[in-house]
Amino acid sequence: MAVAPVPWVIVIGRISVGLGVGMASMTAPLYISESSPTRIRGALISMNGILITFGQFVSYCINLAFTSVPGTWRWLLGVAGVPPVVQFVLMLSLPETPRWLYKNNQIEKATEGLKTIYPADEVGEQLQLLKQSIEEDEANEAAIGNNLITKFRNAMKHPEVRRALAAGVAVQVVQQFVGINSVMYYAPTIMQLAGYASKTVAMGLSLVTTGLNTLGSFISLLVVDRFGRRRLMLVSLVLIVVGLLSLGLVFNISFQNAPHINSYESTHFGKMCKNEHRVWYDKGCPSKFGLLAVILLAFYIIVYSPGMGTAPWIVNAEIYPLKFRGFGGGVAAMSNWSANLVVNTTFLTLTENLGSWGTFVLYGGFSVIGFVIIYFLVPETKGVYLEEIEKVLRKGFRPWPLKQIEDDDAKPAK
């Protein structure tokens, strides 16, 4: 992409990067989970998500450093190619996971791998547990099928799996339709729409959003096991709606109060702005509402990250019956990336047709719909045994007031 002579080369490069990121998003957590001691496995998988958001923050810092360099975008894309090269070289020294080795009948190598993870006196026990786990997985695979169509057919036969899939897919789609990745991807552009015309200033302010996203990921580690996944998502969505509608209002007021520009001014803005000590977007006039827009954008990020940013992934790790967990998690992840594609490819079109304020209001409407869907479809999974979750889904999850109506109907008549 950095050396692209024409736009279609950038598109091809972006497709390649997208395939790589998609593969890594599935294989990296899996590798970590299969290569970690049981007692710290959850923390290391969570750390993967935290480091992703931290990586976004670092990337914005690097982008900021190149904003005034000739050929800015080529440098930004070119520098982004360095970390994958380093990572590729380092990964050549990584061993396969003990689980993969054992499953492929490389028992000795699997044992050696376990010795690097566990104390010597625990290796025998872990090897036996690994054997049992693989045997159970193979039995489950034989029961549900080994191709996608067969697995889907078998999954749909079980009401608890259907409801788990509905809940798991719902939280992943809602996560994207609140507009978070559009905000993250187009943060500098949004900053300019808010009136900060300087690319350097806009990029610098974008560090606020990525920094808060990282902070929110840390906060989620502290609160998600205390407040629960369902409650955290619902509270997060309420605050997201407040943030998005407030952003829409501020952008609308900013638009209504923007100075009128006629055709003469459009062609002579350079002289006019210089005389009036201001510049037009994106060579533009800074808005007096710009700072408030940045504050609201920061609020939106910090209420999203601990709730809708992390809880959907945790729910999908817990809500499926054991034999369908791999299938369910894969379908949910595919739904997440598909929703991501829809939201991000429509963002610029929406801003052109609805305006920035209308786009934020639309995302707010999606968030309201998401709140209703999650409220009625997703049960709480915090501290609940997998067997109990399966029972709840088999019976059918009933939140208030449906639960109250059901209880009243079940009472014997006097």
UniProtKB/TrEMBL annotation:
<feature type="transmembrane region" description="Helical">
    <location>
        <begin position="164"/>
        <end position="188"/>
    </location>
</feature>
<feature type="transmembrane region" description="Helical">
    <location>
        <begin position="6"/>
        <end position="32"/>
    </location>
</feature>
<feature type="transmembrane region" description="Helical">
    <location>
        <begin position="200"/>
        <end position="224"/>
    </location>
</feature>
<protein>
    <submittedName>
        <fullName>Inositol transporter 4</fullName>
    </submittedName>
</protein>
<comment type="similarity">
    <text>Belongs to the major facilitator superfamily. Sugar transporter (TC 2.A.1.1) family.</text>
</comment>
<dbReference type="InterPro" id="IPR020846">
    <property type="entry name" value="MFS_dom"/>
</dbReference>
<feature type="transmembrane region" description="Helical">
    <location>
        <begin position="360"/>
        <end position="378"/>
    </location>
</feature>
<keyword id="KW-0813">Transport</keyword>
<feature type="transmembrane region" description="Helical">
    <location>
        <begin position="327"/>
        <end position="348"/>
    </location>
</feature>
<keyword id="KW-0472">Membrane</keyword>
<dbReference type="InterPro" id="IPR003663">
    <property type="entry name" value="Sugar/inositol_transpt"/>
</dbReference>
<keyword id="KW-0812">Transmembrane</keyword>
<dbReference type="InterPro" id="IPR036259">
    <property type="entry name" value="MFS_trans_sf"/>
</dbReference>
<dbReference type="GO" id="GO:0016020">
    <property type="term" value="C:membrane"/>
</dbReference>
<keyword id="KW-1133">Transmembrane helix</keyword>
<feature type="transmembrane region" description="Helical">
    <location>
        <begin position="231"/>
        <end position="255"/>
    </location>
</feature>
<dbReference type="InterPro" id="IPR050814">
    <property type="entry name" value="Myo-inositol_Transporter"/>
</dbReference>
<dbReference type="Pfam" id="PF00083">
    <property type="entry name" value="Sugar_tr"/>
</dbReference>
<feature type="transmembrane region" description="Helical">
    <location>
        <begin position="289"/>
        <end position="315"/>
    </location>
</feature>
<feature type="transmembrane region" description="Helical">
    <location>
        <begin position="72"/>
        <end position="94"/>
    </location>
</feature>
<dbReference type="InterPro" id="IPR005828">
    <property type="entry name" value="MFS_sugar_transport-like"/>
</dbReference>
<dbReference type="InterPro" id="IPR005829">
    <property type="entry name" value="Sugar_transporter_CS"/>
</dbReference>
<feature type="domain" description="Major facilitator superfamily (MFS) profile">
    <location>
        <begin position="1"/>
        <end position="382"/>
    </location>
</feature>
<dbReference type="GO" id="GO:0005366">
    <property type="term" value="F:myo-inositol:proton symporter activity"/>
</dbReference>
<feature type="transmembrane region" description="Helical">
    <location>
        <begin position="44"/>
        <end position="66"/>
    </location>
</feature>
